Amino acid sequence: TGTGKELIANAIHYKSPNFSGPFVPVNCAAIPKDLIESELFGYEKGAFSGANAAGKKGLIEMADNGTLFLDEVGDLNLDAQAKLLRFMEEGEFYKIGSTEKKKIRARIVSATNKDLEQMIAKGTYRKDLFYRIGVIRIDVPSLNERDEDVRLVAEYFFQVFNEKFSRSLTGITIEAIALLKLYSWSGNVRELKNMMERAVLT
User: Fold this and answer.
1) Where are the alpha helices (DSSP H) in the chain?
2) Cα–Cα distance between 6 and 47 in angstroms, integer?
3) How far is CA 85 from CA 26, 102, 114, 149, 174, in A?
4) DSSP assignment, residue 48?
5) pLDDT in tens, 62-79
6) pTM
């Protein structure tokens, strides 16, 4: 948690020559289990009690010709896993309450801090989906194990907040970078981001 998974997914998306559409991040753990399918796939008007009268476009459809980033993909329930697998294999899906098949083209980048192989052994995660999302795997260790990344990430967020708050700070000193590398980042990239925001503001 907090290692910078979304930053890596962003980098993959924006460096891609094949996908010019939007980058759509989804925190699977933050969406209630009974709403995840309607959020991902959308629904037609009147599909279920309480549905929006106009229906809703799902996040998968919104990512057409772009990248769908599924953070905490280990939190998907088995029904959602089955539908996601079908979409990843065929590029097709149905909105809830619809008989019209939709087909889009999107890259799927997923991330988790859970042991999916252990979940498979317990029967709470589909083995076929695990293999499908794991075609290319990137292990993201703690920031404490990535000394050189401390400087890169700090400078990136420094620039982001320098522009956001209309400051005219010139950069981070060599001495400050050395201190940042010595610090124990229990909160990983998220903690470093917050520290850079405070530094720019003060």
Assistant:
1) 5-14, 36-41, 59-62, 78-90, 116-122, 127-133, 147-164, 174-182, 188-201
2) 32
3) 16, 15, 19, 33, 48
4) S
5) 999 999 999 999 999 999
6) 0.82
